[in-house]
Structures are given as C-alpha cells and as structure tokens.
Amino acid sequence: MFNFLHSFTPDPVLIMVGPLTIYWYGLFIVSGILAATLISFKLANKYNIKKDTIIDLAFWLIIAGLIGTRIYHVLLELPFYLDNPIDIFKVWQGGLAIHGGIIAGLVTIWWFSWKQNINFWLLTAIIAPGVALAQAIGRWGNYFNQEIYGVPTSLPWGIPIEFVNRVPEFFNYEFFHPTFLYESIGSFLIFLILLFLHKILLKPKLPTTYYLLPTKIIVAVYLALYSLLRFSLEFIRTDQTPVVLGLRFPQIVSLVIIIIIISYFSFIFIKNKRNQASLAKK
User: Fold this and answer.
1) What are phi and psi of 95, to 5 degrees?
2) Assuming Cys at both sites, which of 24, 121, 197, 236 could form a disulfide with 144, CB separation 3.0 to 4.6 Å?
3) How wide is the angle at C-alpha 227 spanned by C-alphas 145 and 93, nearest 5°?
4) CA distances in angstroms from 194 to 38, 98, 206, 228, listed in the order given
5) Which residues contact 258 (CB under 8 A, 6 or more apart)?
C-alpha cells in the first residue's frame, strides 16, 4: 500500500459518459452516507427506534450536512470565494469542512428529536458511529482531488502532488504527508471505539431515562476524540485557513469543543457530588 501511495497520481474523474462526469469525490461522499445510514439502522433497531425514523432523519441530515460543511468551508476561504463566487457551487471539486457539518447536524438532530419527541442524546449517540465511519470513507475523496495534504515528507508513504495542486511555498517538493489517510484511519478507530461503547454502556430496549448519561458519554467521546485528531493534524496541513494566536482556526474550534465537554461533565460531576453530600446529611 505504501508503494501505491508513493507512486500513484490519482485522477479526480471516475468516469465520463458523454456530458456526464462522475467524480471519485462524489462516490466516496455517497458511499460514506450509505455506510453511515446502514450502521444507524442497526443501532436504532437495538433501541427500538423504527427504521423509518432514521430514514427521515438521514434525509434532513444529508441536506443540512452538505449545506453546513460547504458554508463553513466557504467562510474559511472567504477571500478566494469573493473573487470566484461561482466556485461556491462547485462542490465536486472538494471543499466540505466537517466542523460545519457537525454543527449543522447537531442542530438538525435537536430539531428532529423535538419534533418526533425522541430523546436528543439517544438519537445523537445512534448517529455518531456512522458519522465517524462516513468521515473515514469520505476522506479518500480528498486524495483523488489532491487536496487536504500535509507538509513535504520523505517517508515511504508520502503522496505525490501535481504542480497545479501544490501550495506555492512547497512548489519545489514532490511528496507530501497523506493527511487524508491519517484522518481516515483515525476516524475509523473512533468508529470502532463508539461501537464498543454502545456495546458496554447501553443495553437494548430499556427505558429512555436509563440512556441519558451513557448516550451523553458516547456523544462526548466522539466530539472529543475527533477534536483531538483534528487538532493534531492541523499542525501539518497546508490548506489555507485563518490563523488566530498562532493556531489554525479548526484548532481553535477543536479546543472550544474539548473545553465545553470538560466543563459540562465537570459540572455534572460536581452536581452529583453535592447531591450525594446533601442526601448523606439527611
């Protein structure tokens, strides 16, 4: 595999039939969505949630996710898109920022759970493993688009980037870190961890109140692990993004997510300790 990555230069086009062009990027995005939906079906059945409910939720999540990821990406590279507004709609060329999808997805699940009278945390915990798997699959679309690569490297798994796709400061280098692969592997490991947590923390078809804390833990683990993964990889990514206090903007967002998670669970821990102390005095 290392030799393949080191010697193969991918083409973004999968197939062309007359005026119809199918891109690898689109194939991996659709494959990720399908895989996420199938995983969500199996988990939903475990908790006695109907398949139709997941289908309805998936419909809204796909729409919100695509819009959220694209808007977030456009905002990160706003100067370019102000000069090239038509490129905003060229999604097949890449440019879907996952943090935007996470935000849009959480808002959509909150709205859907309120509308359907289903516990928000349970629905989010059901969706989370599939999202991690979709990320693992979807990142391969970045590989075929020759985007989201890292700084130059001499490692045997460094990937060649064509001149037209290289950032100016590294124009004279040929091989670069495959950050898409690092994130794909990391996301797949997160997927496996989340499935394991579903197995050990949640029992099937119990009252919803039982699921409250375990589902919060699963959601928090997904957000925290992905944020740590993304924070780490940003040190070697070369794509343009705003820099604040020496950190790339996705790193700032990742840190904010981690701080919110730590603060929330610290609050729950302190609150439970106070309640236990209060009960002990009675």
Assistant:
1) 100, 55
2) 24
3) 15
4) 15, 18, 19, 15
5) 224, 227, 228, 231
The pair of structure tokens assigned to 258 is 């981690």
CB 128, CB 218: distance < 8 Å: yes
Report the C-alpha gap between 62 and 109 in whole angstroms. Answer: 11
Q: How confident is the model at residue 210 (pLDDT cuts 50, 70, 90)?
A: low
User: What predicted TM-score, i.e. pTM, was given to this entire model?
Assistant: 0.88
For residues 130 and 211, give the distance between their C-alpha atoms in angstroms, rounded to a whole number: 19
Answer whether 155's CB lies under 8 Å from 224's CB: no
* Spatial CA neighbour of 37 closest among 137, 107, 186, 156: 137
| Residues facing residue 237 across a β-bridge | 150
Q: Return all residues near 70 (Cβ < 8 A) that are at least 6 apart.
A: 88, 91, 95, 96, 97, 100
C-alpha torsion 234→247→221→182, nearest 10: 10
Cα–Cα distance measured from residue 266 to residue 262, given in angstroms and rounded to the nearest whole number:
6
- In tens, the pLDDT along 98-121 reads 888 889 999 999 999 999 998 899
Using the structure block, give the residue that is written with the tokens 């961890």. 193
Task: Check: CB of residue 185 under 8 Å from CB of residue 136.
Answer: yes
Tell me the C-alpha to C-alpha distance, in Å, between residue 94 and each of 88, 114, 147, 248. 10, 33, 8, 20
* Residue 145 exposure: Cα atoms within 13 Å on the Cβ side: 25
